[in-house]
Amino acid sequence: MMKRANPLFIFPLVAMSLASCAPSLIYDNKDVDMRGTITSFKPGSVWRDVDGNVIQAHGGQIQMMPIPNEHGVKENKYVWVGENKTNGSRGDPVSLYWSDDLYNWHCGGEVMRTVEKREDLDEDPYFSSLYSSYTAAQKDNVYTILNKSAVVERPKMLYNAKNDNYVIWFHSDGPTPAHDFAYDAGCSGVAVSDSPFGPFRLIDRYRLNECPDDQFDCFPLSKGEARDMNLFQDDDGKAYIVYTSENNKTIYLSRLNEDYTYLDVDPKEAVHKRDFIRLFPSSMREAPALAKIEGRYYLMTSSTTGWASNVATCWSSDSLFGEWRSDGNPCVGEGSMFAFDTQSTCIFQASNGAWIYYGDRWNAKKIADSRYVWLPAKLNDGKLNIEWKSNWTY
Ligand code: DGJ
Predict the structure, then answer these.
(1) Considering only Cβ atoms within 10 Å of each terminal Cβ, which end of the chain, N or C, has fewer?
(2) Using a 6 Å cutoff on CB, does residue 244 contact ligand 1?
(3) What CATH number is attached to the domain comprising 305?
């Protein structure tokens, strides 16, 4: 049986030794504990919710969306979904927080839970009612995807106005019968709920678009892989999934259907540059974060060094399926060669128009203590610029 190289772990040692040269400025807040009423961002500090618990929403996404208040009336709030890494980096439930000001966050709980034992899908009331219409084989599949050893990473959530429901996509991974490697499945999982607070019901996980026949496939052994991912909702309501494929060598961007629950066009029928686009072949990028700023699309990515930080790269384009320009490293100043010791996860806009970069500062030795680094993201001469600030407000 062929053993595949694990690209996620090829470079970490080199990157970690380089990262140790990073300037100390970016670790200013490492012992700071943000609790009580918070009035500014202190990137890299411990960030607690309004109840005093450390926020567990890694690899996440921030956006304004309608969510029900205590009377069931929908109000626009900032919503933060992410990985709850309290118990490590496998089988992470998806947690949700909401806020009025981006500084102080209320915990909305675990909105998509992972499953301890296969029997729980039949016997635990939470799961048995959620999956009551599923066959035994479908429940087996749910267990494969959401068990406590599975990879559940980079969850993102969209509000679907057409159906008035919420859809979560996430990087779903794990070993396969062919290879006992934690990132062999290489899929995107999708789950739905009528409430942002869940419970989210897993639909399935999928391989996505494939390299067109007339292009050079960087990893023909394993078609349609989808690992680190993000969702993007354009001004016209159309939604897209952007993800790393071809053994992390190539980024893909694919349009979702109107329900946001699958690709708009099945991979077998999809046409390159009409339904999806294959971007930056052989570039080895992951952690895609896509934003539309002043009418132009900006796609920030990291390199592929496991939990270790590395240099970020940004591309930009006037149209999603058009030509993309390489804009180089968006980070500037001290710490910029390691993205201020972060990995990109999202770029979002505050209600006053300010753009914010959110990166994860992973702590491989104690993953639950990974920190959030939010920094101002600005355009400078048409390119994205991110600079370190130890203490700032938007
Ligand atoms: C980098 C990815 O971006 C993370 O989400 C996670 O998969 C780590 N690799 C695991 O090493």
Answers:
(1) N
(2) no
(3) 2.115.10.20
